[in-house]
UniProtKB/TrEMBL annotation:
Its main location: Golgi. Keywords: Cell wall biogenesis/degradation, Glycoprotein, Glycosyltransferase, Golgi apparatus, Membrane, Transferase, Transmembrane, Transmembrane helix. It comes from Microthlaspi erraticum. This is Fucosyltransferase. It is a single-pass type II membrane protein. Pfam families: XG_FTase. GO terms for molecular function: galactoside 2-alpha-L-fucosyltransferase activity. It is found in: Golgi apparatus, Golgi stack membrane. Belongs to the glycosyltransferase 37 family. The lineage of its organism: Eukaryota, Viridiplantae, Streptophyta, Embryophyta, Tracheophyta. It is an enzyme of class 2 (transferase).
Amino acid sequence: TIYDSKRSETPRDKLIGGLLTEDFDERSCVSRYHQSLLYRNPSPYKPSEYLVSKLRSYEKLHKRCGPGTDAYKEATKSLGHDNNENYANKTVGECRYVVWVAGFGLGNRILTLASAFLYALLTGRVVLVDQTKDISDLFCEPFPDTSWLLPHDFPLTTQQIDGYNRGYSRCYGTMVINHAINATSIPPHLFLDIIHDSRDEDKMFFCPKDQTLIDKVPWLIVKANVYFVPSLWFNPTFRDELTKLFPQKEAVFHHLARYLFHPTNKVWGMVTRYYNAHLARADERLGLQIRVFSHQNVYFQHVMDQVVSCAQREKLLPELSTQEDAKVNTSTSQRLKAVLVTSLFPEYSDNLKNMFWERPSSTGEIIEVYQPSGERFQQTDKKLHDQKALAEMYLLSYTDKIVTSARSTFGYVAHSLGALKPWLLYQPNDQTAPDPPCTRSTSMDPCHLTPPSHGCDDDWGTNSGKVLPFVKHCEDRDNDGLKLF
Ligand code: GDP
């Protein structure tokens, strides 16, 4: 039991209600058993017993099938040469796999890896992670006595896998178009393309009939950039299982992320040093995640105005006093609010800081503004840059209230990890701040940004936001996107 001495004498549950296994050495990865320590309060979302037992069985499966095992060697034999054998009635040992390939920004990676892991959990597969990028500089191993890293001598080379795209004959959507896959013709591996502009045929992946075929394929190689969990609920078989695993539907990513992602000691040091230096003593913490998707990679005054207008309208930040010479407050017990800004541009926090320095707040609160980095442009795959991005997602998750930017996977990870329902900043257009500037989200799970627009079979053409009562369009996506509520 760990005690949070700073805030209360309540014992903290270091295994998060059984979500985590005890089978790890604490020091090799301090964040694993300490990440719940920084939370304001223990998360209101408890993992179900069913999820806990499913995770323990998964760990056993991963140990039996993981790199270096006989089962793994047996299964990789089918991949050595690009054979045309039919795997419809063939077994390649007892294990089947999903290989997750790293691509796009860090937020995208975290969301897609969690999605691939859940898919593995639902289908009895083992997830292996492409390690050609800096994943092991970011995260510790999540499964005990084994590894989730795809071995360097995996028979499909990095060069081969990098080259997989829609034109590849083993791309699932392409096989559907070419009628090249059916119950009597199953390849040893398939490439799945679950990207923002995937074709309808690629998105058939989510349909039950297609899953019965895909289920037989020993190796699945996934390149994805969207959180695809909400769409898995459309499959009735998955839905029953998902309902048992996640009775609180909007907590799917929250649980998966706390189970799967444990920042390395390097990153955790960055998180805790920053937290202790700037956030720990505040009475309240507000997170502002400012991400603008624009061809111009610059600071925008209209976005600054939008953030301030959102924060003040929603009473997240005080107004400024109209009296320049407001009574000077000599009290030492003023309320302290720490604002954590994350953005590629340092101007956002500089301006906010000046605002609250130049004039007093109308409430008398002291506003401290911090921004850990201002990297100016995205530098994915540069180690320290990615480590800072990860540290900032965790820091944001430890705030009490959070404002995030529309469609940003960086923001999705931060609020969902922290079990926070964010205020979502609408996407600005035409150099003007939208009115209203933001809306409060009613769910904390991330949005599947580009889900199938169609249903399966009989449901073909129905609005996917209207099929299930708990899967609806996202607030930041105007009649599009799907999200669990
Ligand atoms: P998205 O593009 O907003 O969906 O988020 P991603 O995380 O997938 O990609 C954006 C990338 O840009 C991040 O991973 C970082 O590399 C960088 N980036 C964007 N915003 C920030 C920020 O606020 N802080 C830091 N440190 N990096 C950022």
